[in-house]
Amino acid sequence: MRDGYLYLTPCADLPGAVCLHEAAVPPTGDATTPVIAYFWDVDAAAMHFHTGLRRRLLDPDRKAYRADMVEAAAVLDAIELRHQRTYVSPALAASPELDAAAARLRRQHQLVRRMFDWAGVVGLLLLLYTALLSF
Predict the structure, then answer these.
(1) CA 73, CA 8: separation in Å to the nearest integer?
(2) What are 51-108's pLDDT values in tens digits?
(3) Rounded to whole angstroms, how far apart are CA atoms 29 and 46?
(4) What pTM was computed for the model?
């Protein structure tokens, strides 16, 4: 488990695509790097980011995804690992779509987590029921 920074940039030769990068030291935030986040487990965070945009993967070697910057930033912000926003460009931070998309993704994650919790409870109840039937 290693810590580090994940940041998004627009892909230069792929229009409409976003590239995910990692770094050990914080990159400078500017127009070419509109989103930077520090994660305590950067490998797991990159995996969660990929899971959020897996159907939009364009180039696995460059980690290029067909998504706009608002959607990619929302996926990065909604990762439920310990992290800290380091930099968000002022234009992106002022966008109401960013907060709405991140909140929607968090609700979806919470719903999936609750469904798995209830499936576990039902499984334990069935196990207890079958154990009591044998008496």
Answers:
(1) 8
(2) 999 999 999 999 999 999 999 999 999 999 999 999 999 989 888 899 999 999 999 9
(3) 19
(4) 0.85
| CA distances to 15, 58, 122 from 37, in Å | 23, 22, 38
Is the pLDDT reported for residue 28 higher than 90?
no
Greatest extent of the chain over all pairs of C-alpha atoms, in Å: 70
- What's the pLDDT score for residue 29? 75
Tokens standing for residue 125: 């109840």
Tell the burial category of 94 from Cβ atoms under 10 Å away from its Cβ (0-12, 13-18, 19+): exposed
Task: Give the 3-state secondary structure of residue 100.
Answer: helix
**What distance in Å separates the CA atoms of residue 78 and residue 22, rounded to the nearest whole number?**
17
Give the H/E segment covering residue 19: strand 17-23
Distance of CA 118 to the CA centre of its chain: 24
Using an 8 Å Cβ cutoff, are 16 and 68 in contact? Answer: yes
Of 22, 16, 118, residue with least CA distance to 62? 22
